Amino acid sequence: MSVICSQCRTENPKESQFCSRCGEKLISDLETTITFAEPIEIGEEEKIDLERLAIEGPLLVVIKGIGVGQTFRIGTMDVLIGRDPTNDIFLDDITVSRRHAQIKHGDNGLVILDTGSLNGTYLNRERVEGACLNHGDEIQIGKFKMVFLDKSGAAHDDKE
């Protein structure tokens, strides 16, 4: 399948965003990530009584964005986070990259790593490439803001 330029009628490959002949922006069904320079502010934060959650092992709780209150358990395997439905944590919004971030089990506990996302991964309002997670940390990925809960885990201050 190809994309036809509305300006010069040149046939371009379907993954093209601009016409190869005239440079006109192409209209296609190809979905790309919207980019922003800073963390995205999105309305009021939902108040969730985090103390009432039955915490069994580490988990993420969505406190802003689509699906407020949704919880994601972090098991013993590494966890992929992104807009692609095949990720372990699927965040369905165009501000999230297809493969946005990963939570890995490191020597000092759980670590969040940005996997080359366009909008970045924020931990406690600071953009990070990699950092250890502590109970109560706030993670922002696109329009989603989540809190990391792990009452049993030790605190770590090391940056990966």
Describe this structure in words.
The protein is mainly beta and 160 residues long. It is 0% helix and 32% strand. It is built from no helices and 13 strands. The chain has a six-stranded antiparallel β-sheet, with no helix packed on it. The chain starts with a strand and ends in an 11-residue tail after the last strand.
Name a few traits of the molecule.
13 strands; 160 residues; six-stranded antiparallel β-sheet; disordered C terminus; mainly beta; single chain; five-stranded mixed β-sheet; 32% strand
In short:
This protein is mainly beta and 160 residues long.
Gap between N and C termini? 43 Å
Q: Could you say which overall geometry the principal axes of the C-alpha atoms support?
A: elongated
Major sheet: 6 strands, antiparallel
Q: Biggest sheet: strands side by side, in what order?
A: 4-3-13-12-9-10
Beta strand count: 13
In the predicted model, the low-confidence regions spanning at least 5 consecutive residues are 153-160
- The H/E string reads EEEEEEEEEEEEE
How much helicity do the residues have? under 10%
Overall pLDDT metric: 81
Query: How much strand content do the residues show?
Result: 25-35%
- The total count of helices amounts to 0
Tell me the Rg in angstroms.
Answer: 19 Å
Structural class: mainly beta
